[in-house]
Amino acid sequence: MMRTILWPAAICVALLCGSCGYTTRSTLDQKYRTIAVSPFYDVSREYDLQAPLTNALVRKFVHDGRLKVVSEDNADLLLEGAILDYKLRGMTYDRFDRITQFVLIITAAVRMTDRHTGEILWQEPLMAGETTFYTRAAGETADRLRGNAEVFLPTVRSFSSEEENRAASEALEQLASDIFYRAIEPW
């Protein structure tokens, strides 16, 4: 009797577990073991963006460990890109028509190349990192960075306010995360 009950239950469990598409393995081809992260070019009108972005990407690969970061000559993969634009737009205004909250968007073009064959494995002509921040006029605090931008990225020092400097760091961290996940999980 116990066998009659356990057998169908075991089949149901096997079917349920076998049919789900979830896996903890990377979809990255196993032949790739190393990566070189080329310093990003900065073709935007701003400066001091390329080093924090490149450093954040290297840090993400080192921390993850699936791909070892090496020099370009020794790499299986080459990740390279360019920072295309830095946009700052007013989002909310006070009664005097002064901007109290901005949205900040940093865009980049990125590609991944197989160093042995020269084949471009993927390229994204437009990836973006964005965040919002309040101005001092809004009376809101700027100490609300999401993620780990404050911990890992040195604050960008190119802008006139500390709020904008910190927001640029956060947008670069978000952009680095998006690029990293696109490289590791290329589906």
How would you characterize the overall build of this protein?
With 187 residues, the protein is α/β, with parallel strands linked by helices. It has a single domain (26-184), classed as Lipoprotein like domain (Double Stranded RNA Binding Domain, 2-Layer Sandwich). 32% of the residues lie in helices and 30% in strands. It is built from 4 helices and 6 strands. The chain has helices at residues 2-19, 50-64, 149-152, 162-184, and strands at 34-37, 41-42, 68-69, 77-93, 99-114, 120-134. Strands 1, 2, 3, 4, 5 and 6 form a 6-stranded mixed beta sheet that branches. Helix 2 (50-64) crosses helix 4 (162-184). The termini are far apart.
Helices and strands in order:
Elements: H1 2-19, E1 34-37, E2 41-42, H2 50-64, E3 68-69, E4 77-93, E5 99-114, E6 120-134, H3 149-152, H4 162-184
Parallel strand pairs: 1-3, 1-4, 2-4
Antiparallel strand pairs: 4-5, 5-6
Helix pairs in contact: 2-4
Which features would summarize this protein structure in a list?
single chain, 187 residues, alpha/beta, Double Stranded RNA Binding Domain, 6 strands, 32% helix
Concise synopsis of the structure shown:
This protein is of the alpha/beta class and 187 residues long. It has helices at 2-19, 50-64, 149-152, 162-184, and strands at 34-37, 41-42, 68-69, 77-93, 99-114, 120-134.
Classified in CATH, the superfamily is: Lipoprotein like domain
Strand content: 25-35%
Structural class: alpha/beta
Overall pLDDT confidence: 82
Total strand segments: 6
Q: What is the CATH T-level topology?
A: Double Stranded RNA Binding Domain
Q: Helical amount among residues, as a percent range? A: 25-40%
Specify the biggest β-sheet. 6 strands, mixed
What is the chains' assembly state? single chain
* Distance from first to last alpha carbon: 47 Å
Instruction: Give the tally of structural domains.
Output: 1
